[in-house]
Amino acid sequence: MFTDFLTQIGRYLLLLKSMVSKPENTKMYWKEYMHQCVEIGMGSISIVVIISFFLGAVTTVQTAYQLVSPLVPAQTIAQIVRDSILLELSPTVLSIVLAGVVGSKIASELGNMRSSEQIDALEIMGINPSAYLVFPKVAAAVTIIPCLITLSSVIGILGGRVSGAAAGILANNIYDAGLRQNLNTFNIWFMLIKSYVFAFLVGSISSYYGFTVNGGSLEIGRASTKAVVVTCISILFADYILSAILL
Predict the structure, then answer these.
(1) Rounded to a whole number, what is the distance in angstroms from the first to the last CA of the chain?
(2) What is the pTM of this model?
(3) Rounded CA gap, 196 and 211, in Å?
């Protein structure tokens, strides 16, 4: 089992190495990159907005439920919601969600191309398939997913503001005052660092499992499932490592 794990790591690193090469046709690569950006962005923005809004709303209600002491100022709720959204909820939870939405799509798309021998056809034509198929997907994920996570943080904080006023927990002016108090700008940078790392994991791991599929539709389904599971575990592991190093 450990030997198989090391073999998978080695193949994954070799795929990353092979995808970084000089493009045969820059215009063709750019077109594929832009197509993947649109696919990832437009295909995920609705679920990102919905999940982020309710993440902020639930965090506000639960934080208010736990802070029952009259000695704690009401604006502290907004501070906790803000930092929770920036540090953990938006980058980590959204990346796990996108691993299921984006990662499974990437893995199944590449798996279908492998099983239908389209990847073999590209090799015969003298095109590096890992560079043409994998690199645009990884680059698009690294470009778009941090933007989605940034949008998620804004929507999450807005959701907390709306739910706080709707539930009568705290007024909007008090919530806004809490957002401005004791803001550590490093939390924003930390969110962005995690976003780029998680985006790379989503794009590259999903591409690896799709690119290395052997078999038909059943194996493609298994590869998509395995890609999502491994990506989620990798995100949680990277989350712990980054938190231990940077915080």
Answers:
(1) 34
(2) 0.91
(3) 22
